[in-house]
């Protein structure tokens, strides 16, 4: 065949053009505009002049106790979710890849919660925590269960972790299932014949061979937990209130909800945009660090 071949042909760029155009319009342009608006006093009111204020929004943000609190709560929430989701998902994956009857049914059942939208999921669990569990607690005479989990600053965050884990574990499980099924069964059988116990086969053969799956799943759970909004909005709306550094704040207000409230509830879109920029930088930095160290671990394993 004559002419140029490979990715440098004009046809290649012609097919790439629609994707790059959509990416530019949807991602790049709003990002650049967002950075610009974060240095202004933009309030999203049509006809209102936009004035340049420099770094004022960033100074206000870092001096705001609610932003610091939301950031710390988001980090704590994300760490617990990452550990719980991946542990439970890995256990589920080991279960459904074992030689069990109805393994396909178990797999579908574990994955099903991921198909429910976050807002709907939040309202469903709101009913469960406020009505179903409290009714059970009253029936069995348990004061702990009779009290709504959403009414306490500590149990409400724990409730959000339960819902997030319940939703995401099945999706992460499927990634582990695909990785486990790609491991040659002959390797595990040979190790078993040589006398390796189950936990030894798991630790020294299976887990090193599916190391790339851990990189993907940790990245996905980190990103999804850190930018959690819909479940937070529907389940707790940031409540209940509590004290932090001497100020009354919403105790379960994660960073994404804090940005939303700053922009829409207080009509300070420029301040909200500044927080979104810092949120983006923090999430990108943490994600890159996580992927870097996981990739190094893959090589070591």
Topology:
Layout: H1 10-37, H2 56-62, H3 65-96, H4 103-111, H5 118-140, H6 143-146, H7 153-181, H8 185-193, H9 198-209, H10 211-226, H11 230-235, E1 241-244, E2 247-250, H12 255-265, H13 269-300
Antiparallel strand pairs: 1-2
Helix pairs in contact: 2-13, 3-4, 3-7, 3-10, 4-7, 7-10, 8-9, 10-13, 12-13
Indicate the structural class: mainly alpha
CATH homologous superfamily classification: MetI-like
Envelope shape: globular
* Strand and helix order: HHHHHHHHHHHEEHH
Query: What is the name of the CATH class?
Result: Mainly Alpha
Number of domains: 1
Poorly predicted regions are none
The quaternary state of the protein chains shown equals single chain
Estimate the mean pLDDT confidence.
88
Number of strands: 2
For the record, give the distance between the C-alpha atoms at the N and C termini, rounded to a whole number: 44 Å
Strands across the major sheet, in which order? 1-2
Q: Share of helix among residues?
A: over 70%
Any guess at the CATH architecture? Orthogonal Bundle
Report Rg.
24 Å
- The CATH topology label is MetI-like fold
The largest β sheet comes out as: 2 strands, antiparallel
What would your notes on this structure say?
The protein is mainly alpha-helical and 301 residues long. The chain has one domain: MetI-like fold (Orthogonal Bundle). It is built from 13 helices and two strands, in the order αααααααααααββαα. A two-stranded antiparallel sheet has the order 1-2. A hairpin with a 2-residue loop joins β1 and β2. The radius of gyration is 24 Å and the shape is globular. The model has no long low-confidence stretch (mean pLDDT 88).
